[in-house]
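Worked example 3. Consider a protein that binds pyridoxal-5'-phosphate.
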Amino acid sequence: MAIDPAQAVLTIDLDALAGNYRRLRREAPGSEVAGVVKADGYGLGALEVAGALEQAGCRRFFVAHLEEGRALGARLPDATIFVLNGLPGDGEEALRARLIPVLNHPGELARYAALARRLGQRLPAALQIDTGMCRLGFAPAELELLDRSQLEPLELVLVMSHLAVAEEPDNPLNQLQRERFEALRRLLPPAPASLANSSGIFLGQACHFDLCRPGVALYGVNPTPGRANPMAPVVTLEAPVLQVHEVRAPGSVGYGATWRTAAGARIATVPVGYADGYLRAASGAASARIGGWSVPLAGRVSMDLLSLDVSALPPEAVRPGIMVTLIGGPDGVDELAATAGTIGYEVLTRLGSRFARRYIPPGLP
Ligand SMILES: Cc1ncc(COP(=O)(O)O)c(C=O)c1O
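Given these inputs, the predicted complex is written out as structure tokens:
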């Protein structure tokens, strides 16, 4: 794709992503590690991401929706793909696309079992148990009441649950959920088990079970907040300077006139705004990088543009066309998220469609 010189460029390092996958495998050596690629691979391109993961040895993937699974299955015909958000319709579409539904409540189980009986085939299915999130999954009471013969038409290939506070290792809910999971899965026929997301992998072996389901750590976000990030950064966002203002008289920058400038200040304008997923809540607080210099955002992020106070830089360092790093290095996804009062997941999944995307291919393992 030709890159417009006035366009922002999002670089996605698939080699770093593959390295992160291998790092997670070392962290959970007794367990298989899947890839969670829902929401278009956390905004980075599910097909590209999953292709790189498959090359690194990943065989099982999780998506949220049927359509996400269908697109992925067309690209990776040998992969096993689970659909987390449950069973659409009677399950025929999922079956036709060779997707494995995660059954989240008795109604879904009944529908899929009915389809299996009608077709005279044992259909592979996963089942989710709610151990403390109250989001998706069979409630403990529903499992206790479950007549196991209802599962007979199905092949239970995975029993899973999801941790609510895995990024807080000292939170007692982790152990409680693990214990509930251990107890409740015994009410089901024996099947491989899965509990850990990215942060769950770093809670230690007791949480690993047979299959781990990391998402965000693959994409470079720190799964161990408060400690050094064990993952390599995957995303860099760069954009060219469009215009540099030499401020001649005191004034202000941007909507709301919230950033005051003195005479002699220099303000650079860059073509990235909140419509591109650069969070408006980072206004006047985040920083970016030009060459080796850190420069603060000046005033509010607008829809398609943001401004940087480059007064401290030598004039020759900031000209139209010079690239600014908005996400990368010390201004990574986690740092931007913290500045904007959100989480790395939200920064990643909002990265917009107007950027030119450049993928660094995975190298050799
Ligand atoms: C059920 C389930 N498993 C695994 C994941 C991956 O979680 P993370 O991105 O924290 O690794 C998610 C993501 O939200 C999820 O909903």
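Take a moment to read the result before moving on. The mean pLDDT is 96. DSSP finds eleven helices and 20 strands in the chain.
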